[in-house]
């Protein structure tokens, strides 16, 4: 029999709304799953003791016949980079190990207002730096398909928790792929929306489009449900502007329910590497197999890529600016309390001149212009591998080489994701079976400017088309084996930055 925690978010919400599933019963099932398997992977790092009372109130609202929100009664994990009122939020840093926010981040507030039961915080690397989820507060997070391997990051805790059935929905964020990378590694869905669609008043460089917040789930319709609750304007986010008297983004009907899409009408571009990323042979081979399987679904699939010249340099420069803005003072005053990834980014940032920053911004703009021309010339979607390597051991801080070729930086292996980040185009990673090494494979779907609904509709249609296909359907970890596995905390190197 399916445990309540294994239900999709949409099904659980339907059952709650029809009084056939108690929010308390659902929460208890999720907490039971966390208790059983979290020691093996360390995805959940703090549980809100108020969650059961929130679930009771949600149940009472159902029984009274109150109007229910989109996420009413659904337990959710919140990434530990996102402030949650009354629940410890550490950002993966010892500097904030006892930090308890007095207010929710606006996106978290919307999730709470939509009726979700804020249940726990999910693990993240320090300040989201790096795509291997480990830190000196809570330690490392393992992959549910093999706890010795990385869950990626920086939303690795959310990705691992979803794959292990602790939750049906979790929040995440994405700068260089932090939603899409763990989605690919753990075999779940991560959606990077257009900048500004989900407000974030916390960005210090308010007009920069690199960091965004977004939904994670085990399937695309559930991700769309969460996005419908998260999306909205905020006066303190300059990218999330309003028009006079009109909220631009808070329109759930755009994403819930997703309208059907005829895939046979779409013209798709396929690229293994955007012409410049280092991509492991295992990943290339898995991608080719999937393209061959998917090709009959579309009007056409053509192997081609937009010109991405200068993307590596632009991302390196612009990313470093964020680190200087957010962390230079920490590195200067408390260097022993800051990890190597943050220190390296701050040092790199101070090495750039004003001319370098101008060049990085020009390169980004030129890339954006070329992408608009590429889509305008007859492409509806781009499909790529979501990430460049098959999951490696979490003990490896970052891949220094791919198939014998040295990576440029500790984040160069994320190029398939951060190239898209620079353009501001929406993108999703959906699970498509396992690679030759037995680990999950993620397919990235990239849409045109502002094409968030199109990307979600296409992803949902692809998921429906391949349902039941052994090669292409979502891989499920062995929950019983995880429950019997030794705790990840017993593994060498578990606690710390590196």
TrEMBL record:
<feature type="domain" description="Amidase">
    <location>
        <begin position="25"/>
        <end position="456"/>
    </location>
</feature>
<protein>
    <submittedName>
        <fullName>Amidase</fullName>
    </submittedName>
</protein>
<dbReference type="InterPro" id="IPR000120">
    <property type="entry name" value="Amidase"/>
</dbReference>
<dbReference type="Pfam" id="PF01425">
    <property type="entry name" value="Amidase"/>
</dbReference>
<dbReference type="InterPro" id="IPR023631">
    <property type="entry name" value="Amidase_dom"/>
</dbReference>
<dbReference type="InterPro" id="IPR036928">
    <property type="entry name" value="AS_sf"/>
</dbReference>
């Amino acid at each position: 029999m399916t445990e309540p925690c294994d239900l999709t978010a949409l099904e659980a919400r339907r059952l709650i709304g029809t009084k056939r599933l108690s929010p308390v019963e659902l929460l208890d099932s999720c907490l039971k799953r966390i208790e059983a398997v979290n020691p093996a992977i360390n995805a959940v790092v703090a549980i809100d003791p108020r969650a059961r009372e929130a679930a009771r109130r949600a149940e009472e609202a159902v029984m009274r016949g109150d109007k229910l929100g989109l996420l009413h009664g659904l337990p959710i994990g919140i990434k530990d980079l996102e402030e949650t009122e009354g629940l410890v939020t550490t950002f993966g840093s010892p500097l904030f190990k006892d930090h308890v926010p007095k207010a929710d981040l606006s996106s978290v507030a919307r999730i709470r207002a939509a009726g979700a039961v804020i249940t726990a915080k999910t693990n993240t690397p320090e300040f989201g730096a790096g795509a291997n989820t480990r830190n000196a507060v809570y330690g490392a997070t393992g992959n549910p398909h093999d706890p010795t391997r990385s869950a990626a990051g920086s939303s690795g805790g959310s990705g691992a928790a979803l794959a292990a059935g602790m939750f049906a929905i979790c929040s995440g964020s994405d700068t260089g792929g932090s939603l899409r990378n763990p989605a690919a590694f753990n075999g779940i869905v991560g959606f990077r929306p257009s900048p500004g669609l989900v407000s974030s008043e916390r960005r210090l460089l308010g007009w920069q489009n690199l960091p965004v917040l977004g939904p994670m789930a085990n399937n695309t319709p559930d991700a769309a449900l969460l996005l419908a609750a998260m999306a909205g304007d905020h006066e303190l986010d300059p990218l999330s502007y309003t028009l006079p008297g009109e909220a631009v983004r808070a329109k759930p009907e755009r994403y819930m329910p997703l309208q059907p899409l005829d895939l046979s009408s779409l013209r798709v571009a396929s690229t293994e590497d955007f012409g410049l990323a280092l991509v492991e042979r295992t990943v290339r081979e898995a991608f080719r197999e999937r393209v061959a399987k998917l090709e009959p679904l579309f009007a056409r699939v053509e192997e081609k890529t937009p010109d991405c010249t200068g993307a590596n340099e632009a991302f390196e420069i612009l990313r470093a600016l964020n680190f200087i803005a957010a962390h230079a003072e920490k590195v200067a005053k408390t260097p022993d309390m800051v990890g190597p990834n943050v220190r390296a980014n701050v040092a790199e940032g101070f090495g750039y001149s004003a001319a370098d920053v101008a060049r990085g911004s020009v390169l980004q703009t030129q890339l954006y212009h070329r992408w608009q021309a590429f889509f305008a010339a007859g492409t509806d979607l781009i499909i790529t591998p979501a990430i460049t390597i098959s999951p490696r051991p979490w003990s490896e801080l970052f891949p220094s080489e791919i198939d014998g070729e040295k990576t440029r930086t500790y984040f160069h292996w994320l190029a398939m994701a951060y190239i898209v980040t620079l353009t501001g185009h929406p993108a999703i990673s959906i699970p498509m079976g396992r690679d030759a090494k037995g680990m999950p494979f993620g397919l990235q779907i990239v849409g045109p400017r502002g094409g968030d609904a199109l990307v979600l509709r296409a992803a949902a249609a692809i998921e429906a088309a391949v349902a039941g296909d052994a090669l292409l359907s979502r891989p499920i970890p062995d929950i019983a084996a995880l429950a019997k596995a030794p705790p990840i905390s017993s593994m060498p190197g578990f606690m710390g930055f590196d």
